[in-house]
């Protein structure tokens, strides 16, 4: 009896299962036939171009912009989008160790900015300059026509011939100078050279011995790291060619601790809509610096060569240097209209 009931149940289940499978197969076949039988609509009839095409283009462009910001563009993209290599409309001319790399990389977060990744040294290097403007343009990254290219070569700020050469290329170019408290900058400059010597297993002088003249016990103005920090002297040479309005001074110390307000000032100076936001900048406790967030998947910190630990400097030498720079700083504030809390 029990055996009979079980057989009946199995039979019912079989029929039910066959019915379900049959229906599914029928539906699949029907959909397939429908797809095959219906005429393929021309794109225009399925959706209005204004609804769909910009969406696709934007999505694609976001990818393209991202690649451009990373300094990449494929041959196909160059051809498809008429990408161009444009002369810079703004140059970060210095100051060495002021935070020039951080500034360039952070500005590159802006969708309308494309950076020249390498320092090109066109205007300060006679051999490069002799290669001509087309060589310089050829060193520029590909960009969309509405974007602006920015390059940085910190040696421009202190090199005699550069202002005139840049003026000859573009007399209305925008010039960015990023400065730090002059003594800190000089120590940073020294630290970079020291690291280079150490890498080659060479010995090097102490900062104090370079910065102070042993014969006079005064600040050694022949020492390049000291000379570079006399910002006003260099700026005055530039002002023979460009009006002060064409320069924007960036506070390199604030760019370290709170970069966004400094970047917003630069956006305004470059007449760019404000696009860099706090989202794009996050503090990385391990690095001890702000790092860059382009989007949910792509972020980066600057290389380890940025943000070195400085050697301890004799406090009396620090004070001597600060006193030495003080009058030059005052002049710099006066000329630029930007005041810092430097000692
Ligand atoms: P230190 O190495 O003395 O700390 P430049 O790019 O002109 O060579 O400047 C280097 C300096 O940029 C570094 O000097 C560092 O302090 C500063 N800097 C500013 N913002 C930075 C950031 N987000 N990450 C790393 N370094 C940064």
TrEMBL record:
Q: Which reaction does it catalyse?
A: alpha-D-glucosaminyl-[heparan sulfate](n) + 3'-phosphoadenylyl sulfate = 3-sulfo-alpha-D-glucosaminyl-[heparan sulfate](n) + adenosine 3',5'-bisphosphate + H(+)
The UniProt entry annotates the active site at 97 (for sulfotransferase activity)
Transmembrane stretches, by residue range?
12-29
Give yes or no: UniProt keyword Metal-binding. no
Q: Which domain of life is it from?
A: Eukaryota
Q: What is the lineage of its organism?
A: Eukaryota, Metazoa, Chordata, Craniata, Vertebrata
Name of the protein this chain belongs to: Sulfotransferase
Its localization reads: Golgi apparatus membrane
Q: Which Gene3D superfamilies match?
A: P-loop containing nucleotide triphosphate hydrolases (3.40.50.300)
Family indicated by similarity: Belongs to the sulfotransferase 1 family.
Q: Which cysteines are joined by disulfide bonds?
A: 291-301
- Say yes or no: keyword Transmembrane present: yes
Tell me the keywords, alphabetical order: Disulfide bond, Glycoprotein, Golgi apparatus, Membrane, Signal-anchor, Transferase, Transmembrane, Transmembrane helix
Q: Which GO terms describe its molecular function?
A: [heparan sulfate]-glucosamine 3-sulfotransferase activity
Predominant location category:
Golgi
**Domain (Sulfotransferase): residue spans on this chain:** 88-332
Q: Which residues bind 3'-phosphoadenylyl sulfate?
A: 97-101, 180, 188, 290, 306-310
Q: How does it sit in the membrane?
A: Single-pass type II membrane protein
**One term under GO cellular component:** Golgi membrane
Which EC number(s) are documented for this chain? 2.8.2.-
């Amino acid at each position: 009896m029990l055996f009979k009931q079980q057989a009946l149940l199995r039979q019912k289940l079989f029929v039910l299962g066959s019915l379900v499978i049959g229906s599914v197969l029928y539906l699949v076949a029907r959909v397939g036939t429908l797809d095959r039988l219906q005429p393929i609509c021309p794109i225009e009839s399925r959706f209005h171009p204004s609804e769909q095409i910009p969406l696709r283009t934007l999505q694609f462009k976001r990818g393209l912009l991202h690649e451009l910001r990373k300094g990449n563009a494929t041959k196909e993209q160059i051809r498809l989008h008429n990408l161009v290599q444009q002369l810079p409309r703004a140059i970060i001319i210095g100051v060495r160790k002021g935070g020039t790399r951080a500034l360039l990389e952070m500005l590159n977060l802006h969708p309308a900015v494309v950076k020249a990744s390498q320092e090109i040294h066109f205007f300060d290097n006679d051999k490069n300059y002799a290669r001509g403007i087309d060589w310089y343009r050829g060193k520029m990254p590909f960009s969309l026509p509405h974007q602006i290219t920015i390059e940085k070569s910190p040696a421009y700020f202190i090199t005699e011939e550069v202002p005139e050469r840049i003026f000859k290329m573009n007399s209305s170019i925008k010039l960015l100078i990023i400065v730090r408290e002059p003594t800190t900058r000089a120590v940073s400059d020294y630290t970079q050279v020291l690291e280079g010597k150490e890498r080659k297993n060479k010995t090097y002088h102490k900062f104090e011995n370079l910065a102070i003249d042993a014969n006079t016990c005064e600040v050694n103005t022949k020492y390049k790291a000291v000379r570079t920090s006399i910002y006003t002297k260099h700026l005055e040479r530039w002002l023979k060619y460009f009006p002060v309005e064409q320069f924007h001074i960036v506070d390199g110390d604030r760019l370290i601790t709170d970069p966004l307000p400094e970047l917003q000032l630069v956006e305004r100076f470059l007449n760019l809509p404000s696009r860099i936001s706090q989202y794009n900048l996050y503090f990385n406790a391990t690095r001890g610096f702000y790092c860059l967030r382009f989007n949910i998947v792509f972020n980066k910190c600057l290389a380890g060569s940025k943000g070195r630990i400085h050697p301890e400097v004799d406090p009396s030498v620090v004070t001597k240097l600060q006193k030495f720079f003080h009058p030059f700083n005052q002049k710099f504030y006066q000329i630029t209209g930007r005041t810092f809390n430097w000692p």
